[in-house]
Write a structure and sequence with these properties.
The protein is an alpha/beta fold. It is built from 6 helices and 5 strands. Strand 3, helix 5 and strand 4 form a beta-alpha-beta unit. The structure holds zinc ion. InterPro entries: APOBEC/CMP_deaminase_Zn-bd, CMP_dCMP_dom, Cytidine_deaminase-like.
């Protein structure tokens, strides 16, 4: 698995936090969701976690990263944290996610100004951190996007095995699966091969 930056966190720490992200992925699997999980860490403490909830919410944007970000935003909003303070807080946070952030999530992480990202397996269809686009390496002052350090390949095998077990067990929510495809051709989506989405090729 390719790494896109060396990263600043020691190996043992990366593995420990990625294990927690994998646990979130397992919770997603138990809930019959595509198993992707993440944790957000500040000062070596997990301050938020998230798992994919696209099927449950019937909302294609409810990826693990968005869930974890929203937990913090809600909490900070309740505590009256200012916009500037939110930006400062995110700039000290590191995200561990089992699968490379998609383009949407990579853009969001760049906008909130996350410090660093570690991911497990690559996302060949929609990866926003090197596979398709490299949103982590390009700043856009107009959109106030910031670069962030991003390193892939942390426990990639475990992340892939998790995804594989989801596809192998079959998907009881097959009729809802089009919700998590964001680049498919509508009705062709469930015929799998014609769909270019991340989840194409899964068993029906
Ligand atoms: Zn995403």
């Amino acid at each position: 698995m390719e790494s896109f930056a060396e990263g600043t966190v020691p190996e043992t720490e990366r593995v420990a936090f990625m294990n927690l992200a994998l646990e979130q992925g397992k919770l997603a699997l138990d809930s019959l969701e595509v198993p992707v999980g993440c944790v957000i860490v500040e000062d070596q403490k997990v301050i938020s976690s998230g798992r994919n909830r696209t099927t449950e919410t019937r909302n294609a944007t409810r990826h693990a990263e968005m869930e974890a970000i929203d937990v913090l935003l809600e909490q900070w909003q309740k505590n009256g944290v200012t916009r500037e303070e939110v930006a400062l807080k995110f700039s000290k946070c590191t995200l561990y996610v089992t699968c490379e952030p998609c383009i949407m999530c990579a853009a969001a992480l760049s906008i909130i100004g996350i410090k660093e990202v570690y991911y497990g397996c690559g996302n060949d269809k929609f990866g926003g951190c090197g596979s398709i686009l490299s949103l982590h390496t390009s700043s856009s002052p107009k959109l106030t996007r910031k670069e962030f350090k991003c390193t892939g390949g942390i426990m990639a095998t475990e992340a892939i095995n998790l995804l594989r077990s989801f596809y192998e067990q079959g998907n009881p929510n097959g009729n809802l699966m089009e919700n998590i495809h964001f680049n498919c051709n509508g009705s062709n989506c469930r015929t799998l091969r014609q769909c270019s989405c991340l989840y194409a090729g899964r068993p029906t």
